[in-house]
Design goal:
Number of strands: 6
Strand order of the largest sheet: 1-2-3
Radius of gyration: 14 Å
Length: 101
């Protein structure tokens, strides 16, 4: 991935901000900003290193290393799940499992 990005003049590491507002999920990655209304967020799942918000057919990827502690990670996921639709929460067992502890 690093080589492919470098060949295109892109840095491998880029500043990332993911914000949760009552209306939208905002994903800022260097020169790219994506905004999704919560009804468009269909799933939230965890991989070994990332949390992935599925927004229709696109992914907003948040590295788990961004969290300073397991509690901070849990608090963020609790907030995100509270903003998602019931259907999206039902399709997000990884997030539900983390919340239950």
């Amino acid at each position: 991935m690093q080589k492919a990005l470098a060949a295109r003049g892109q840095a491998y590491e880029q500043p990332l901000t993911l914000r949760l507002t009552p209306e939208v999920l905002v994903y800022d990655l260097e020169d790219v900003t994506m905004t999704a209304r919560w009804p468009c967020v269909t799933d939230l799942y965890r991989t070994r290193k990332y949390w992935v918000f599925l927004v229709q057919s696109s992914a907003m990827v948040l590295p788990r290393r961004f969290f300073t502690s397991p509690e901070a990670e849990r608090d963020f996921i609790v907030q995100a799940m509270s903003l998602m639709t019931d259907a999206a929460r039902a399709r997000s067992p990884d997030a539900a499992e983390l919340i239950k502890g």
